[in-house]
Specification:
about 40% helix; leucine-rich repeat; single chain; signal; five-stranded parallel beta sheet; AAA+ ATPase domain-containing protein; alpha/beta; Rossmann fold; plant defense; nine-stranded parallel beta sheet
Length: about 850
């Protein structure tokens, strides 16, 4: 488990403090000359510490001495306390600018005392900074980093790479791999669109650490080796030595010719030329295991010549975005529950039927924690096998279950698993490490919503704009997506608890900086917020505050169904996010909240020029209200996420021609009762300008072929959800919907649709409905050959069949049979779900 008090966290805190110290030194705070001098000295000292912390953060946690970790903790505490001093001073000075002669005079005295106090406090902080700097030298922090960078590490840390064991798994442990092997072999051998079997084919396998990428690639490599003239299986690493990779490859390709290759001095170009010469006329099969970055892959790819000999390459990576750039992505799934049980029980008892009844219940709970991940199952099984030799094995198994996620002792397999998983963490840039570590504030088994997590990152100051004009929410969402691409986060469920982040182990309200109360905690008494003197982040989202819980809303805004929105909200000019329950009465002056980016109300919109998210509901829409909405929407140039709903049927044609969204729009959703007659003009005429639109959910009276083609030209569309009363005969062609992943189309009338070969090349999920089943004796059409087999990435198909008057059972069965046949002949054998309605 990675420590949340890591050097990376301390480095981030120091970064925040540096920005505030620079702000403090500005003339508007009118600091004494001596105080300014100390502030500048503190800033320089912290800059030096931050550089060292970043270097220390790249060293694996278990290779740092205890003294270095203590030093990083000291820097963290120093940064927290210094930031408290600066924040308290700024608040005291800013609050003195009240109106009225008496208040102004009092304000002058208040500011003078504040400046006197901060002079003493900055002096104390500076003394502590000097002590921390001295400990850095005493603990030899810089020498620790230098030893690691030079490859001189602790003997325990210099052990062999634990990933190596994945290459030599016992055949008994290769459970549930046969189907995955068959699928990958089929992908390697079948002809792809525009690619003959004689051309070089590159397939990439992506997935998180421990899922079995190396094991799968090795097994396929072993099975296919006899079909090729020469083969090689080489591993890269998160810190690759490309010259060594090339030498390993040459040795694998010809162990006799290149037996001394590692003793020869060859630069990268010479090795590339040697490999290209050797492979030039040969049919080869090479596996490149564990690619961490594109530059490494680019260098390796230069050596792999294309010779039309039917050669094949497999590359594995933990990063899905890298996989897409390497070659044809091949998804790797977790084990099925049945295979997980077989692997688990086989490792411990030999087979499932040999498991004693006393262990069945706890086994199910442990397997559920392992999430069908082979590495986790094998590792935990080795711990449990050892526990079976103890006096009370059942009790030991329950201890293992409760300790999963918090540490499992010093078992050798557990240490290897941690090293394998930690590689993903240490490959992250520092800003992503901080965001990733922050997730640990959530208790185990608590569901984290993406938007909430991004808002918390922003509140904590983890998201910093890279250039002027950058939107913090956009950056936060990109961080979130990158953690997914790197296989580091996945959906989880969390228990509820109270999380208090402090700088002391003995909790004091005056030192709480971040307060999160999670749903279901049942807290009935919360201290007055005035007790939290340095509170920066307050998160009560989804919290069920009991009656009698009174909150001071003077400086902090909380809105629940039981709390009336105060009129003073209009003074929170730096407020970026506001969510209120339905029917909340809002005070006058909401247009003053010019920093607001995410409300869920629609009043005084035209003034909220930074608005990023907007959800509109209405009961009735008349002409005068249409004018208000259009005027407001045309003034909101930052809108990215727009959702529109109505209680009754409502036409949206008034915004189809007169509103043109900016290129920032990434989601547009309408409710089923909000209809455009046809696709709006801003899609038909300007689809190429909507460069960020990835999610579109829209309802129409009629879907025409020309409109479908316009949708197919949207350059970044990933998710399309279409509802229409009726449609023309529709055809999707190659070159349309190039990035689409999910396609849903529902037509109330009979749906007539054909997918041509090469259409929707990346679509994985298709929803189709309703096919209107008409009696063939009345000229009805039950031809369900829609071309599903032409969607090359298809994994899942939902089809809704609707019976109408006169529909006969044979027509329904014919339709189902045609759909099943399409799924069977599809190379991916997608899952098919058919539902009927009347």
């Amino acid at each position: 488990m990675l420590a949340t008090t890591s050097p990376t966290t301390a480095s981030t805190l120091a970064s925040f403090l540096l920005l505030k110290l620079s702000e403090l030194a500005m003339d508007e705070y009118n600091l004494q000359k001596g105080v300014k001098k100390n502030v500048e000295a503190l800033r320089r000292e912290l800059e030096s510490m931050q550089v060292a912390l970043r270097k220390v953060g790249d060293v694996p946690y278990d290779q740092l001495g205890e003294e270095v970790n203590l030093w990083a903790r000291d820097v963290r505490e120093l940064s927290y306390d210094a930031e408290d001093v600066v924040d308290s001073f700024m608040v005291r000075v800013d609050d003195q600018g009240s109106k009225g002669m008496v208040k102004k005079v009092a304000g002058r005295f208040g500011k003078a005392k504040a400046r006197h106090d901060i002079a003493d406090e900055i002096k104390d902080i500076m003394e502590r900074a000097r002590e921390v700097a001295a400990r850095r030298d005493r603990y030899k922090v810089d020498e620790t980093v230098a030893r690691f960078n030079n490859g001189v590490t602790h003997p325990a840390a210099a052990a062999s790479d634990p990933r190596l064991y994945g290459l030599y798994r016992n055949k008994a442990e290769l459970v549930g791999i046969d189907e995955a092997c068959d699928d990958l072999i089929k992908a390697l051998t079948m002809e792809a669109e525009g690619l003959s079997n004689q051309q070089l084919k590159v397939i990439s396998i992506a997935g998180p650490g421990g899922l079995g990428k190396t094991t799968l690639a090795r097994e396929v490599w072993d099975r296919l080796k006899p079909k090729f003239e020469c083969t090689a299986f080489v591993a890269v690493s998160s810190t690759p030595n490309i010259e060594k990779v090339f030498k390993d490859m040459l040795l694998e390709l010809d162990k006799t010719k290149y037996k001394d290759i590692h003793n020869l001095v060859r630069d990268e170009k010479q090795l590339i030329d040697e490999l290209r010469d050797f492979l030039n006329n040969k049919r080869y099969f090479i596996v490149i295991d564990d690619i961490w970055d594109i530059p490494s892959w680019t260098a390796i790819r230069c050596a792999l010549v294309e010779n039309n000999a039917g050669s094949r390459i497999i590359a594995t990576t933990r990063d899905f975005s890298i996989a897409e750039q390497i070659g044809i992505p091949h998804g790797l799934k977790a084990l099925t529950p049945e295979s997980s049980k077989k692997l688990f029980y086989g490792k411990i008892f030999g087979s499932e039927d040999k498991c004693p009844m006393d262990f069945v219940e706890v086994s199910e709970k442990i397997l559920n924690k392992c999430g069908n991940v082979p590495l986790a199952i094998v590792t935990i099984a080795s711990v449990l096998a050892a526990a079976n030799t103890m006096r009370n094995p059942t009790n030991e198994w329950n201890k293992v279950y409760t300790s999963i996620g918090s540490g499992l002792g010093n078992n050798h397999d557990v240490k290897n698993m941690k090293k394998i998983l930690s590689l993903s963490y240490y490959s992250l840039p520092s800003h992503l490490r901080t965001c990733f570590l922050y997730i640990s504030i959530f208790p185990e088994d608590y569901k984290i919503e993406r938007s909430r997590l991004v808002r918390m990152w922003i509140d904590e100051g983890f998201i910093e704009p890279e250039k002027d004009g950058d939107n913090l929410f956009e950056l936060g969402y990109s961080y979130f997506c990158e953690l997914i691409y790197r296989s580091l986060i996945q959906p989880l469920d969390y228990d509820s608890c109270l999380e208090l982040t402090t700088t002391q182990t003995d909790l004091k309200m005056s030192q709480v900086r971040s307060l999160s109360i999670f749903s279901g905690s049942g807290i009935s008494l919360l201290p007055s917020l005035s007790s939290f003197q340095v509170l920066r982040v307050l998160d009560l989202e989804n919290c069920d505050l009991k009656k009698g819980c009174h909150l001071d809303l003077k400086h902090t805004l909380i809105v629940t169904s039981d709390v009336r929105l105060p009129s003073t909200i209009v003074e929170l000019r730096r407020l970026m996010f506001l969510q209120v329950p339905e029917n909340t009465i809002l005070p006058e002056g909401m247009g003053n909240l010019t920093s607001l980016e995410s409300p869920n109300f629609g009043k005084e919109l035209r003034n909220l020029t930074k608005l990023r998210e907007l959800e509109l509901w209405w009961d009735e829409m008349d002409k005068s209200l249409e004018e208000v909405w259009i005027e407001s929407l045309c003034n909101l140039h930052e809108i990215q996420n727009l959702r529109i709903f109505a209680v009754g049927d409502s036409s949206l044609d008034f915004m189809g021609e007169r509103w043109m969204p900016s290129g920032r729009l990434w989601r547009f959703v309408t409710g089923v009762s909000c209809l455009f007659t046809i696709i709006p003009a801003w899609i038909r005429k300007n689809s190429s300008l909507l460069t960020n639109l990835t999610d579109l959910d829209i309802c129409l009276k009629e879907l025409r072929q020309e409109d479908l083609k316009a949708l197919g030209r949207l350059p970044t569309l990933l998710f399309l959800d279409l509802d229409a009363d009726k449609s023309e005969c529709l055809l999707t062609c190659a070159g349309e919907f190039c990035w689409l992943r999910s396609f849903r189309l529902c037509i109330k009338d009979s749906l007539q649709l054909t997918f041509q070969l090469g259409a929707l090349p990346r679509v994985e999920i298709v929803y189709l409905g309703y096919f209107s089943m008409q009696d063939t004796r009345d000229g009805g059409n039950v031809d369900f050959d829609v071309g599903l087999e032409n969607l090359l990435s298809l994994e899942l198909v939902y089809v809704y069949l609707r019976r109408t008057t006169g529909t006969i059972d044979s027509d329904m069965e014919s339709a189902k049979s045609a759909l099943r046949h399409a799924a069977q002949i599809h190379p991916n054998h997608p899952t098919l779900v058919i539902k009927e309605s009347s």
